[in-house]
Amino acid sequence: MTHRVQAIFNHTEDYVFFPDEKMVSLCCWNSRNAERQRLLALGNVIGVLSKVSFAQQPQEELIIREGGTGTLACVINETSGDEVHRIQWYREDEAIDPESPVYPRYDYADHAHVNGNYNLTISAAVLAEDNTRFYCVIDDGVTQDETSQIANVTIAVFPVQALYISQNGAELAVNGSAQFEDGFEGYVSVTVNNCNPAPLIRWFYRNNNEAWDILSSGVTTTLNPGTNENTIVATSTLSLTPSSDDNMAEVMVRISHAALDDELQLFTTLDVEHAPTVIVVDPPPPIHLRAGNAAQIFAIVAANPNATVIWMKNDEVIQRGNPLTFSTVDDSVAGENYWCKATNVHGSLQSDRFTIVVDTVISGKPKVIIIISIPAAVILVVVIYVFYIVFIKDATPLPPGDGTTATVSSFMPDKVDVSVEKTFYPDGHGGIVEREPESTDEEAADGLDGMPDRSRTSYAAAMSRPKTMPSLLSTVKDIGELMK
Q: Is 80 exceeded by the pLDDT of residue 269?
């Protein structure tokens, strides 16, 4: 590309010089005839004429909390030689000198400016003074000044007063409820006064303790100037058209801001008024009631506000109010055509028809003994049957006729076993009798010395006397007597 420049020479000078910065050379003309002379090299003066530029410019956005500290970047490229340059910082269009006591809150991060470091530190940030634009300019004294990009400094301020959710301009209690009507649009909002910058406000919804869902539709945010300088008022409004299913659902608002370490959270519950939607009769039909007892039947109604209940039988009102109460249940209570009706200011609902069955019980005291005796009688019969099989069925009676000899072993006090022979005879009536044994001379050696013969004979006879086997009927009677 060729650039043409018109020059008018004054003939009073001998030569005209024009430095060519791009070519780093010096052009020369004869001023009298405009003849171009030899091109001269600039040589070692290049360091003076070379351009100084930014190696790092101030960041576009910097947020500092009120009273806090922040740093703006400014680093230049230094060249070899004797550079002549000056760095000037500006706040808006006001030149500031970080090394002057006039600006005590501003200072260079490195006063030696090693490696071209001219970073600016802002201390004890003040909203009214520092919430503005900053930039720096390079002045090398040779070329045109170079200006950095603009740095927008924001001093973060958040109100100290408590925040709240409001409805129709009225403050809602902490974790309180917001009033809505089924199918009608309503609004809740939250306002943050005198803050800087604008906060991030998000709304969330959940029902039946499920996971929180973010609400993206129905949310509007407005920003207005605050009462304090450089502050704003941020208001976020949520529009809802809830149904009866949303009654007692929760709404949460989260507020994030540069001046806060953590999010703020506010909660409210949706109090949605609606007509009765569900009636559940408890206990569930068909309902069994015991005759002679008191009883109550409840109607569980989903309604807001609470509904009044009337009870009907055969389409006639039998009671107003909940629950349905019977002081004494009798046969007149039984029936198949019961129902109830729930009503509030928004509408009414009728339950399904249901049946009441009256159960009759045996009068008097409960026959617990009868219930217990049945298994006891079964056990008794089994015991008797086993006893009969083991001890009676296979027993052999003594035949009538000649005498039979039996031997009885007895345990004597001196632990001497004695065998006594006894002779038994039938008595002709189904029983037996015994005959005393004759004395012998061997009794002196039977180990019973010292016992009179009569006592010894009576003892042996008693120990060997047969016992009459009881009959089955007498055994059952004896067991019955023991159980009484």
A: yes
